[in-house]
Amino acid sequence: MSVQDAILDRVAALAPPPEVLLSREIWWRDHQPWFKECGYLLRPRYAPDWVPSWEGTNKYPMDCEDNVPALGGRVLDATRVSDGALVLLKKTLVSDHPHEIEIGTFFSSEPLASDPRNHCVPLYEALDVPDDPNMKVLVMPMLRALDNPPFETVGEAVEFFRQIFEGLQFIHENRVAHRDCMGPNIMMDPKPLFPDMFHPRDQRKNREWTGKAKFYSRTKRPTKYLFIDFGISKMYKAEELSVLEPPHRGGDRTVPEYQNSNEPRDPFPIDIYYLGNMIRRYFFQRFHDLEFMKPLVEDMIQDDPSKRPTIQKVVARFDTIWQSLGSRKLRSRLVACDEDLFTTFFRNTGHRFRTAYYILARYRAVPTPKS
Length: 371
Fold this sequence. Notes:
Blueprint: H1 3-14, H2 23-30, H3 32-38, E1 40-41, E2 75-80, E3 86-93, H4 100-107, E4 125-128, E5 135-141, E6 144-145, H5 154-173, E7 176-177, E8 186-188, E9 225-227, E10 234-235, H6 267-284, H7 294-300, H8 311-323, H9 327-331, H10 341-360
Antiparallel strand pairs: 1-2, 2-3, 3-5, 4-5, 6-8, 7-10, 8-9
Helix pairs in contact: 5-6, 5-8, 6-7
Domain Protein kinase: 1-346
Protein name: Protein kinase domain-containing protein
GO molecular function, one term: ATP binding
């Protein structure tokens, strides 16, 4: 037995059996009746009288939906009783994140909510936890990682860039600095690609846990990308032309302004850095064929924040860049940096057939969703 196998066996031996709730799940179970009163059903695992569905049967726990524990203690999925929609519940402490609900409500209210440039996750409501006045539970749509499933074409990547630049422009124009808009805090609306959705705990499976979740490509079913997690965001008054904030480091710790410095900084150029560095990490380090974006991204991640373009300039430059690309380039396949020759040949062959179908069926090279 290898050392790695021995470690895995040891971890498995220490893990509680699937019929035992983890400590991070107890709070959700204890509040399940309250969530039901509010109109949200938690999965059967969190019912106070839960009996594992495999007990007394010949089923293995791994084949049952209710064997899967929550991934973390702050968030959990639920079903909205009124329409059966899958939603996300997120616990937040008002003392730690005093502006999150205010900003979420601001962007989720009219007329901003109906603005097609609004790429902020909708906040359906904020529930007051009855036994903790400092805690709220935010109700939002269930989203999916921005790159799952992977991007297939240059045009799909271009549409992602267009939307996140447009979205940050909308945020900044409304005098809000996100302050943590790195990769995991930009997600995808999965409903166009996954019309039947998926299981929130194992997103490879369908919602019923009976097989794989079926999905479409972004080209066939264009989707929308959304900024999430406004926990450390700040909103400023229109008359505040210049703002400075002390370091409040988000998930991306490479921001040049915060290296060996605690001086207050302008948060808006930091947002520009976050987006540029996210594109570098998520796209340049994974795919070829995006060289047309590199000059813009290099300007966005300059060490000197005064040399970074504003989001208005980013949007204007990007608009010129992508409109100069021909249809052949936009429909070309994104080639992964780690592909071998056999994989490249195999994927290119399949891509040619798909592209021919997309062209004949009049699917756009840049798949922009309908407003």
